[in-house]
């Protein structure tokens, strides 16, 4: 009780978070997956479904057939996105990476350990994934540096700053992700970046500058915004 009164997230105390119909293991010091990030899972399933000719978008639930598709959960934290996609679609190849060793250790509890890598963005990924990724799902930090002080203490004091701080305008990591995406995406592959509504224009511009076609997707029920960027 004292830890909760001190502001520690309930998910850290329980050891898990509800996400995408799963109980995702979450350890102290790891970013707690938010419900709004389920939009990335739904989009990942929808995009890979269309690419594999299994019909139209699947945006109401997590059912799908992604057999053979390669999905990367970049800036993975606990690996919640990858775990939810893998649970929905057992045939998918899911890989994940994060710069934080504590997050990597946690993600290895939620995903096959040999497919979770530690390092700075794409530097963490096996080189043989280059040009093979069908869906690159990214929940990189997008809180402007000066806004972190206004966040609830559960986040500000108990989640790693590297999972929150998006730089001066909130899109410093988004620009780096966009710049490197083309090398890793398969032809027609798509980059999904969670962003804030205030940052969505900047995130979209970064993807356009990287030569990707762009769409901004919002979900009012989840209070979620994502940029979907496609490699030609």
Secondary structure elements and pairings:
Layout: H1 2-5, H2 10-14, E1 16-19, E2 22-25, H3 38-51, E3 70-74, H4 80-88, E4 93-98, H5 101-110, E5 116-118, E6 133-138, H6 153-156, H7 172-184, E7 185-195, H8 200-209, E8 213-219, E9 224-230
Helix pairs in contact: 3-4, 7-8
Short description:
By secondary structure, this protein is of the alpha/beta class. It has helices spanning 2-5, 10-14, 38-51, 80-88, 101-110, 153-156, 172-184, 200-209, and strands at residues 16-19, 22-25, 70-74, 93-98, 116-118, 133-138, 185-195, 213-219, 224-230. A seven-stranded mixed β-sheet has the order 5-4-3-6-7-9-8, sandwiched between helices. A two-stranded antiparallel ribbon has the order 1-2.
Order of helices and strands: HHEEHEHEHEEHHEHEE
Alpha-beta content class:
alpha/beta
- Share of β-strand residues: 15-25%
Low-confidence segments, given as residue ranges, are 51-66
CATH architecture: 3-Layer(aba) Sandwich
Mass-distribution shape: globular
CATH level-four homologous superfamily name: Vaccinia Virus protein VP39
Compute the number of strand runs: 9
Mean pLDDT equals: 89
Please give the CATH class: Alpha Beta
Question: Nearest-angstrom radius of gyration?
Answer: 16 Å
- Number of helices, where a helix is a run of at least 4 consecutive DSSP H or I residues: 8
Strand neighbour order, sheet with most strands = 5-4-3-6-7-9-8
Q: Considering DSSP H and I runs of 4 or more, what fraction of the residues is helical?
A: 25-40%
User: What is the count of distinct domains?
Assistant: 1
Task: Determine the CATH topology.
Answer: Rossmann fold
Task: Characterize the main sheet.
Answer: 7 strands, mixed
Alpha-carbon distance between the two ends:
53 Å
């Amino acid at each position: 009780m004292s830890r909760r009164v001190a502001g520690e997230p309930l998910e850290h105390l329980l050891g898990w978070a509800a996400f995408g119909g799963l109980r995702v293991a979450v350890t102290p010091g790891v970013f707690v997956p938010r419900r709004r990030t389920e939009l990335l899972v739904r989009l990942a399933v929808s995009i890979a479904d269309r690419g594999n000719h299994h019909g139209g978008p699947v945006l109401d639930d997590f059912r799908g057939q992604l057999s053979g598709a390669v999905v990367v959960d970049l800036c993975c934290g606990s690996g919640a996105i990858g775990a939810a996609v893998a649970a929905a679609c057992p045939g998918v190849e899911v890989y994940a990476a994060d710069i934080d060793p504590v997050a990597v250790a946690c993600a290895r509890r939620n995903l096959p350990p040999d497919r979770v890598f530690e390092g700075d963005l794409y530097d963490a990924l096996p080189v043989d994934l280059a040009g093979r990724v069908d869906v690159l799902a990214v929940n990189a930090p997008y809180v402007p540096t000066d806004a972190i002080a206004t966040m609830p203490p559960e986040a500000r004091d108990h989640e790693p700053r590297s999972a929150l701080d998006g730089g001066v305008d909130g899109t410093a990591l988004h620009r780096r992700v966009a710049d490197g995406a083309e090398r890793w995406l398969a032809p027609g592959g798509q980059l999904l970046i969670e962003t804030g509504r205030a940052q969505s224009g900047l995130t979209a511009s970064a993807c356009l500058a990287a030569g990707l076609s762009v769409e901004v997707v919002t979900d009012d029920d989840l209070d979620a915004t994502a940029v979907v960027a496609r490699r030609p």
